[in-house]
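WARN retry 2 of 3 for item q-0093 after timeout on previous attempt; input resubmitted unchanged.
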Amino acid sequence: MDSVPNSKPHGPACAKALRREGEEAGISPQQIALNIHRHCGVSLLRAQRVARGMSLEEAAAALRALPGADSRGAPKPTRFQLGNWESGEHTPRATTVGLLCRLYGSSAEGLGFENTAAHVPAATLAPATGTTLKEDDESTFDRHFDLARRAVDRTLAASTVSTEQLDLLDEQVLEARQQYVYTPPAPMLTILLTHLGEVNNLAADRQPALVQVRLSELTAMLSTLIADGLMKLGRLSQSRYWYRTARAAADDSGNSELRARVRAQAAMLPFYYGPVETAVTLTREARMLCHGRPSATGAFAAAAEARAHAKLGNEEAALTAITHAARVFEQFRSGGHDNDAFSFPERRFHLYESGTYTALGRTRQARRAQAQALALYPAKTGIDPALLLLEGAICLAKDRSPAEACEMAGSTYLRMAAAHRTSIVDERARDVLTALPPAVRQSRSARDLTQLLALPPGEM
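OK item q-0093 returned
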């Protein structure tokens, strides 16, 4: 087997870029393979496959389909065997090297098998891929390509996932989305990771396009909820990475509604923790992906954009966006099941409306939205009602009622279940102190609230 450079092999993206550049420049696959081998530090055998844009499964299937590969005693290579040959862990027999030469239109030396070249049977070396067959070899030519086509068709049709499995996964993810509304983030993350592990195990194998789309959709949903749960716990760096994973999975699915939804949800992280300008960018992207169609996601994206503009002090943009959100919501009116983390029911619309008007200092409109939202929340729910009450406390602070504001924030904080009293609630409670007039930030009520927020959970 050929020797591989001592430096650590480059990632797949590097080889793909070299292949793309080579194809655009009209370079032969043989030269592209040599470039990949030299630059990326992979074996010549692997470079030959990558230069042709073939997966291990596709290359193994094409190898099995070659004339002579189905004869008695011939090897039946799998993607695992091919991977072992490429990595140098095992060396194929001389007969198999001949088949590899035919598959890639190369010599044994060109595949890195210098020591095997002398033992390769001549019969297995022709016709090689890329050579021209004579007219009297037409039947062999047809058979060769017919077998290759059938092998590819089998690969495309192969699936390790049944319809029943997909339906069960859909049910599990929907149940998790409903649980998420009222379950504290820490235990919920364990549930989400379990479901994601099942989805990822199935997605690891090549699946037909329609199956892969559904698996990517499920991955995007679960990753989004994981990112949101981590954000609530204050694990911001991990949350940011998971949101990127969610966006990548949503984009892979091609589902524009889901792509928009994930971006609108991802805007929550920069909204609460900055930079808020990123929240505006994400929500605008989400609105563009909705293509102006009235939908729950379109209303959600517009409402989230309004809240971000308001936090930045862009009143005109905030009012335009919240008016648009209200119009879209009225057109659609149904945001799905109320107890579903991926729905946008009326109570959530009023939550974002409250956040927009609170940030703009329009306390009367904010209180109306808070009252409308709180009337729609069930007894068994998550942190949203507490966030609404804390926004009510911010309104009191802006209306110069500091004692009432601190008392309302403190009582809201203490009434929450300890498992729901997470970092994001702490941050919103501290916003009440920030909203107080500077002259009263050292008042007794403000000091009491500051001390309450500083207490360890077990001492409350």
